[in-house]
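Late entry, written up from scratch paper. The run itself happened at the end of the previous shift, but nothing got recorded in the book at the time, so transcribing now.
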Amino acid sequence: FAQMALEDPRDRKLSRKALRHAMRGAIEASEIATGMLGYARTTDQTPHCDIRQVIHAALRLTHATGSEQGAEVEVSVPDGAFVQMRPLALQQVLVNLILNAKEAFQGSPGKIEISVDGSTWNTSDRLNQSHWKLRVCDNGPGIPEEVQSKLFSPRYTQQSSHAGSTGLGLAICKALIKEADGEIKVRSSAENGTAFTITLPARQDETGSRQRAA
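Output as recorded:
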């Protein structure tokens, strides 16, 4: 709306709409920042977290818990899904992915699905360790194939049809996940929307061994 208003500044109706849109964005950003600061103060910054709790905290911060916000949200998380990642770091990743999904709908009704399931993930230095897979999917218009390979690059900041803030935000997400010894991948098409899959190690118990994912 802002770009359209700049192209035709004499259109007062469009200008007012652009201002309202900008104000809503500023208020939402302020509320998210305030909420995350509060979460940081009240959350024990241990190196592991309950995925379900972090998902619901991210949904509250992004106002994505009801269809009135333009998106239907479905969450499916089994009991006992704990990962070896700082709570605030995982929340930052989820807030970014949820906001990107909402932006993809461009004001139209859409659906966001967040699911978690157990996984045995082989890596180069550890075999058959227990991990959890966290997926954030939307039925938006998808991300062009030529853009997908650049999404996690810090130098790529061009807006896509899917996200209002690709590039640096997703690069930070990847760095936070890598810090937790995890991995993030994206799969997207115009027909099926976009799916981000995050693989994270299960929480370590007191002996240092991995909690077994279901």
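Residues 76 and 109 are 20 Å apart (CA to CA).
(Scratch paper discarded after transcription.)
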